[in-house]
Amino acid sequence: MILFLTIVSGLAWSVVYVDAIRIGFKDRSYAIPAAALGLNFAWETLYAARSVATGIDVQGVFNIAWGLADVVIVYTFLKFGRSELPAWVTRRLFVGWALLLGVTSFAVQLLFVAEFGWDDASRYAAFLQNLLMSGLFIAMFVARGGPRGQTLLIAVAKWIGTLAPTIVFGWYRGSPLILGVGLLCSVFDLVYIGLLWRSRRRLRPRA
Fold it and tell me: Mean pLDDT across the stretch 132-157?
């Protein structure tokens, strides 16, 4: 069951990244909130590299695939992200902010490793940044005034991709922290799904 849920999570998050790349280029935007993208990119880069160094398992395969996909999503952020900001944010300020965000994201991940060790750090950091992402998706929907650069497929796949490891590490392996944070992710994810579903129905042409 644990292997099955790991594969479900891996495939679901892969769907998130593939559709994020698609809609990013289609809408000339970026589909993953900036702070969450920075943390994800740092997490996947570090743990993909560790998988290569220590031996690649099922999760390691997904880590490498996600890391490669994140490179493209980061490109969409750098290419289109400036247009999402107020006019007073110059290109130089945007690049400086992006660099600060990237450095901070890697620093946070390494601090988790220093505090908890590689195994626990990978789980704690992943779930906490996942909760941040869940909240930021809702904030992005509000800031953009609708679903531009977002899709219902991303929202549903993100929910499933988080729920599966919540069951693995929170329930089967008995971590109250991961179970609680994972369930909070589900609450925010379902709210976000509801927002996108409602906006989709409102935008659908009437017969």
Answer: 96
